[in-house]
Amino acid sequence: MHKVCDVELGADILAANRRIAEDNAALLNRHGIKSFDFLGAIGSGKTLLIEKLADRLRSKGIGCAAIAGDVAGDDDYQRLKKHGMPVVNVNTGKECHLDAHMVDHALEKLDLDAIDVLFIENVGNLVCPADFPLGSGTRITMVSVTEGDDMVRKHPILMGGSDILVINKIGLAEVMEVDPEILKKDAKHINPHMPVVLTDAKLGTGIDELLSLMGL
After folding, report:
1. How far apart are the first and last CA of the chain?
2. What are phi and psi of 160, to 5 degrees?
3. 168/172 Cα distance (integer angstroms)
4. At 156, which helix (H) or strand (E)?
5. How far is CA 105 from the centre of its chain?
6. Rounded distance, CA 185 to CA 182, Å?
7. Do residues 145 and 168 touch, judged by C-beta distance below 8 A?
8. Are 120 and 94 in contact (CB under 8 A)?
9. Burial class, 3, CB count within 10 angstroms (exposed 0-12 / middle 13-18 / buried 19+)
């Protein structure tokens, strides 16, 4: 009986999240905002990549904003704030992912009429966020060569539901003895239609290609 109840409760939670995510998507679409949900393990380079993208877009006169998700603290929030865009900090507490309800509340704190592009940085995790869409238009998953060449195939559910895969820190690939082509091959096996871009966020490598894939 307990197992049946747990399954039903889990299904209800996921269904409720999907409904709120659809409302978030509709809200963002009404305001003409392009939105991007960034997922990746801690240290994969999500925050730095968003910083680089935001700077590049702001130089073109494109208004950006961000939602910084983390279990605790405001480190990423403070970093993103320095780039001249509105940022909302969301602490999830014991939860290992953002959910659509949290994003809904964060959107209430932003002037949506002043935003062209919204970045949503999820909690550093490659498992929990997979089942919780947030309402973003594009889901971007990041892995780093410092995590090994098996990271993609270890997370097939997330890879299967992602729109773009970023393989970051490629400048360290030789030192780490990791072949980015293995990661790309695994990605294509799981999700044949998902574009893959190689980046080094610190050096700015691959930023233009990623922006093109993002339709920016």
Report:
1. 51
2. -65, -25
3. 9
4. helix 156-160
5. 18
6. 5
7. yes
8. no
9. exposed
Is 0.90 topped by the overall pTM? yes
**CA 112 to the chain's CA centroid:** 19
Please state, as a whole number, how many other Cβ atoms lie within 10 Å of the Cβ of residue 19: 11
Strand order in the sheet with 64-70: 87-91, 64-70, 117-121, 34-40, 138-144, 164-168, 196-198
149: Cβ contacts below 8 Å, ≥ 6 apart: 178, 179, 180, 182, 183
DSSP strands (E only) in 73-114? 87-91
Distance set, CA 207 to CA 91, 104, 186, 191, 213 (Å)? 28, 29, 22, 22, 10
**Residue-level pLDDT at 74:** 96
| Other residues' Cβ atoms within 10 Å of the Cβ of residue 72 | 9
Largest Cα–Cα distance in the chain?
Answer: 58
Model confidence band, residue 9 (pLDDT cutoffs 50, 70, 90): low
